[in-house]
Design a protein that fits this description.
The protein is mostly helical. Helices cover 69% and strands 2% of the residues. It has 13 helices and 2 strands. The protein has a two-stranded antiparallel sheet.
């Protein structure tokens, strides 16, 4: 069996040669060459070209852009936007309250209340909002007089004003969707929470109010925000019941001034502004309720911009050093 050969020169300590070589030869800088994404550039150029073509088409169209600017803050338009916001907020509040009640009824062990809640949700989710608004608006055809014995009696046409028709039509329809959202949120809470509350002597109602619903809000809030933004746009359907909201206000101005398309642009701008403002509010509300489920909250858009700017400013010039 042969002995291993010692390649260390005589008189040199072991490992001295390798250490000296490592000390004399410095590592070279690594020049990272980014991969070229030709498809991204092509798609970007195509999209920019389409946007330019679309902008040019609108600039050459028979549109009186000055009328859009003049009527954007017209008193009639602003009042219509205020009524749109009012009917949307009130309908959403009533829809959320009734939706929570329906969700609790749906999850109840009482077969009567559970069945009634299911029937309500089935009907209002199965018929269009436009049809429901027309049903309320024409209710006087089958019930000429609203007669609640010993409480209230009046002509149905006086009771079902355009505002009342719009409010009932939007709120009752929204309640059906909110009931399913709340039911999903309630069922997302672990059953052990309810069992622990009952073991502490809390009643069913107290457990629902103080334990289950606060935890279910994390699941309920995001779709509720989406529903409200959708409500702002769905409120335009109350045009059918002659409620003077934003779309009807702009349409009346357009029909008298013959600036139909211009006033539709005005209405669209107002809808975009309102939905954008509430979308920002929804983002921060969701972020607040996510504190109990995330270890670290995601950065806000403004924080991401600052981080990207700081990273771009601190980027070293030349290649990437090892």
């Amino acid at each position: 069996m042969t002995d291993k050969l010692d390649k260390t020169p005589p008189g040199s300590p072991a490992g001295q040669v390798s250490v000296s070589k490592a000390a004399t030869t410095a590592p070279e800088n690594i020049k990272a060459i980014p991969v070229r994404h030709v498809g991204r550039w092509i798609s970007g150029v195509v999209v920019i070209g389409l946007l330019v073509a679309l902008g040019y088409a609108f600039s050459q169209g028979n549109i009186q852009w000055q009328a859009v600017g003049d009527k954007l803050f017209d008193s009639t338009v602003v009042a219509g936007a205020g009524r749109t916001l009012l009917i949307s907020v009130l309908a959403m509040i009533l829809g959320v309250i009734l939706g929570v009640v329906l969700a609790v009824m749906r999850l109840s062990k009482n077969p009567v209340t559970s069945w009634v809640a299911w029937l309500y949700i089935w009907f209002f989710r199965g018929t269009p909002v436009y049809v429901q608004l027309l049903l309320w608006f024409n209710l006087a055809l089958i019930f000429p007089v609203l007669n609640i014995p010993f409480i209230y009696k009046d002509e149905m046409t006086d009771v079902m004003t355009p505002f009342m028709c719009a409010l009932l039509g939007l709120a009752l329809n929204e309640a059906a969707y909110m009931a399913e959202i709340c039911r999903a949120g309630i069922q997302s809470v672990d059953e052990g929470q309810t069992e622990a509350s009952h073991a502490l002597g809390m009643t069913q109602g107290k457990t629902m109010r103080r334990v289950v619903l606060p935890q279910a809000l994390r699941v309920i809030i995001p779709p509720t925000g989406n529903e409200f933004i959708n409500m702002l746009k769905t409120s335009s359907l109350v045009y059918a019941v002659t409620y003077n909201e934003l779309l009807r206000s702009t349409s009346q101005i357009g029909s008298t001034s013959y600036a139909v398309m211009e006033m539709l642009f005005v209405a669209s701008i107002w809808y975009i502004v309102m939905t954008s403002v509430f979308s920002v509010g929804q983002y921060y509300l969701e972020r607040r309720y996510a504190r109990g489920s995330l270890r670290s909250l995601p950065l806000t858009p403004w924080q991401r911009v600052k981080v990207n700017l700081a990273a771009f400013g601190n980027r070293p010039s030349g290649g990437v050093s090892a």
